[in-house]
Specification:
single chain; mainly alpha; 10 helices; 75% helix; 0% strand
Length: 288
């Protein structure tokens, strides 16, 4: 184990504390914007719907459920923004790059500190911000005599048991059902690792550039996949029985899982490689 890959919990917490102290100003802007977005997301529908329709109690419950589940998706989006811009502040100036290199810690510890701040800690903060925005919306609703049902219980219930929609599959084996059930989580992990890589590939506007490339790539792959499926099913419109369909679904899901897991490992590994090769004055965009 080299000095750059050693990990000490004590040094890790020291680096994390230093990063938190020096990143206070940018964190306040980042999380303040998220709080205002949560507040607008909850307050605007509440007051607009009240003045327009005067909803009944059951309609308020349904709206609270929708706001809670959609707030969960909004939290996931903010996490992608957080990891997508995780290394921008640390490479924006000569002083910040020198400070990162001179920290009394290994490269792996500094890398883990950045991931912890922009993933684990950010997730906790975003959840707390949603709860605070919900409490403030409820307070404003009470002040202005507007009926309001808290969205926090539905938000927390969605976190505990996220439902990304029912997947209608034929009678399938346990492995097929398992792989299908956790596709949303796998896709999100793939997005997270992609935005992590983009944060190190691009020195500015990393989230926007990564999102544009993802949209273009997804559109191209969807088109190619559709054309391939049509060309495959055309000559054999009636040749698939129920057992053949399950076999095709199993192979497709297995390939999707293997490719996505491989992509996640590549993104994290290459991101660390680029971070480890960072210089005070970077010479290459792709880590060379």
């Amino acid at each position: 184990m080299t000095n750059s890959t050693r990990f000490s919990p004590r040094r890790f917490w020291q680096v994390l504390r230093l990063d938190l102290v020096e990143g206070t100003q940018s964190a306040l802007k980042h999380y303040g914007s998220a709080f205002l977005a949560f507040l607008a997301f909850l307050a605007i529908p509440t007051f607009v719907v009240h003045h327009a329709d005067h909803p009944q109690p059951e309609e308020l419950l349904e709206m609270a459920s929708r706001l809670g589940s959609t707030g969960f998706l909004l939290t996931l989006f903010f996490l992608l923004v957080s990891i997508g811009s995780s290394f921008a502040s640390g490479r924006s100036s000569l002083h910040s790059r020198m400070r990162q290199l001179l920290l009394p810690a290994s490269t792996f510890e500094r890398f883990c500190s950045a991931l912890f701040r922009h993933t684990v800690l950010a997730a906790v903060v975003f959840v707390l911000l949603f709860l605070c925005a919900d409490a403030l919306t409820a307070t404003l609703a009470q002040i202005f005599s507007v009926p309001y049902v808290w969205s926090s219980p539905h938000f927390l219930a969605t976190i505990a048991n996220p439902e990304m929609g029912d997947i209608d599959l034929p009678l399938s084996s346990a492995p097929v059902l398992f792989m299908a059930r956790f596709i949303p989580a796998l896709v999100y992990c793939g997005l997270w690792s992609t935005f992590l890589l983009g944060a190190l590939l691009f020195r500015s506007k990393s989230f926007v550039l990564t999102a544009v490339i993802l949209i273009a790539g997804f559109t191209l792959l969807s088109l190619l996949g559709t054309l391939g499926l049509v060309s495959l099913m055309g000559p054999f419109p009636h040749s698939f029985n129920e057992q053949s369909v399950e076999r095709v679904i199993f192979i497709s899901l297995l390939l999707f899982w293997l490719l996505t897991l491989g992509w996640i490992v590549f993104c994290i590994g290459y991101s660390y490689r680029m971070y480890a090769r960072a210089q005070v004055i970077p010479r290459g965009r792709f880590g060379f």
